[in-house]
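User: Second chain of the day. Same drill as before.
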Amino acid sequence: MDQRGVAAVAADQEIREALFGWMEFGADDYLSKPFTVPQLLAAVNARDDRALHALRITQEEFAVILWPEFPESRPITNITADDAWGMSIAQSVAGGGRAIGEYGGKDFVFLRVESAAPFPYRNFVLYRDVAIVVRDRASGVESRLTFAPSFVERKGRVKALIFRD
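Assistant: Same format as last time:
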């Protein structure tokens, strides 16, 4: 870094955003393969691990769109997008497996999604404390499923951020 701090500006995404404005992405940049909650429930019902995880944020989407906006991405933390992804992906894979084990084969009727207030970032909106409210078609019992605790929306498309173990 020189005495004007030029290297610090070049290395710190947050400073660059403050100085130069919003992060820019290509015109076609959005979340791939968005989902609907009934698709998520169908993957769990079918016990289809691959289909379930296809509805989750990809590593590239996380690294390019989400990670640069999280406070933990600041260079001072020494945490890279790959580090953060690696810390969360094992939990997410286990959480998907647990959801399939617990809810797979159940015929749920989707009722609604509940969440805490949306948290807007510059390039996406994060929905936390998500609960998928369903009714078991066989028993009529209403339940709140919390295996997908965070959803991300970008340009009208939604994906699960992670699955909770």
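Residues 1-30 have pLDDT under 50 and may be disordered.

User: Great, on to the next one.
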